[in-house]
Amino acid sequence: MNKHHPITVLILCNILLLLHTLQAVHSHTVCIIGSGIGGASVAHFLRSYSDSHTIGQITVFERNDVVGGRMATVTIAGETFEAGGSILHPKNYHVLNYTKYLHLRVKNPKHSDDSLSLGIWNGDKFVYKTLNSNSKLPIVQRFVSIANSIRILLRYGVFSLFRMSSFVEATVNKFLKYYEGFESRPMFESVDGMLKWAGLYNLTTRPLGEELVELGLSPLLIQELVTVITRINYGQSVNISGLAGAVSLAGSGGGLWSVEGGNWQMAAGLINRSDVVLHLHEEIESISYLGDVYELNSTKGKSYNCQVTVVATPLDESSIHFSPEISIPPRKLQHTHATFVRGLLNPSYFGLDVLSDIPELVGTTESADIPFSSISVLKQHEKDVTYKVFSREPMADALLDDIFSVRVETIKINWGAYPRYQAPEKYAPFILDGNHLYYINAFENAASTMETSAVAAENIARLILSRLTGQVNFSSPNLKSFSSDYPSVMHSDL
């Protein structure tokens, strides 16, 4: 048997140690603040598009005790429901690929487009209600569906509905440019540049309502159906900017889906697979640029140094102190209060006689006198129902007791959900300081969804790698399939 000479072994150990040291010197450390879909996505793309020689340790900080950011679930009566980001569009290719990459199960809504019972409430009465039938016979259900289609066409106009659909389709097709290959898709240092390249910028310069009037939509369609959609999806009226409005309308179409067990699993899975060091329940209170690294100080009294820092949480209500100071346009967040109630609605509140006359989805027109944006049925139980109520302000118990005749269980969640959109929109830069301090949520002033966060994060990852290495193209140009051969560290505490 061959024996290694001690000197040879020592030389080999020294060479390996030197190689490891050189790799550590040349790889760059990254800190990510926020473990929502944006923070998880940028970690994923940094790993997917580079190697350990370029990107070394990635550290993710989350101020809460679970990952997911504005994706979360609640449990009522043993059933789990989405409490934050709920629905995904069939052309949300990043998140769709995440589910495949992470082997997550796709869940379709419990209602098909044809069977959803909808009512539009103006504070006094239902100005529009779909027909409904208790019969389970397919032929009866089909007849009711056809009748509802005719009624909606007669009320809002064939051409108006067609123009609205065409507007949404054209906007979605422009957004699809963000999935093109690296050879045809540049990196963007500004949100303006990113939007102009895709032909979407002009939509952010004026309100949705003005855009739709110019397209020839009927006033009734805008005041009722479009308003219901924007109030449900963004908690705001048709005065929101045009791009956010188009995204909101797209979120009311067919083929919508979510992840079985909760959309937060996408963020958890990407963090699991991206070889990161995760700090839960640790909030960053200051970020200081020291010339070659950023020093991050947390509320736990700890300090961390990283060469690259990515802010993946809205700065609008953040208390992070930056040194040197940064400058971003002021904006306010639209808070959405999600109230989950297991009980029974009160028919008399809606001027009705029986509970069955209340639609499964109650949308509302724009009025200061209406205390909620929407009420929807989540689950029919044997004796009662689980509902989700969206509102701009907290729902007081006395008000809930007026709206509901029975309340068995109530859960209230306050989300700083998305920006208050106001055209023309102004944007924070993707690069906050001209060095390596990046801001994913700058894109939210264009539109705020799980997918837009992923798209912005992918651009940030490419931007980081390009500015660190001088390269334009990286190792994974095909965005519709993800490699699974990079290192993985599983976190049991997710």
From TrEMBL:
It comes from Buddleja alternifolia. This is Prenylcysteine lyase domain-containing protein. Pfam families: NAD_binding_8 (PF13450), Prenylcys_lyase (PF07156). Residues 144-472 form the Prenylcysteine lyase domain. PANTHER family: FARNESYLCYSTEINE LYASE, PRENYLCYSTEINE LYASE DOMAIN-CONTAINING PROTEIN. Residues 1-27 form the signal peptide. One of its GO terms (molecular function) is prenylcysteine oxidase activity. InterPro entries: FAD/NAD-bd_sf (IPR036188), Prenylcys_lyase (IPR010795), Prenylcysteine_Oxase1 (IPR017046). Its cofactor is FAD. GO terms for biological process: prenylated protein catabolic process; prenylcysteine catabolic process. Keywords: FAD, Flavoprotein, Glycoprotein, Oxidoreductase, Signal. Transmembrane segments: none annotated. Belongs to the prenylcysteine oxidase family.
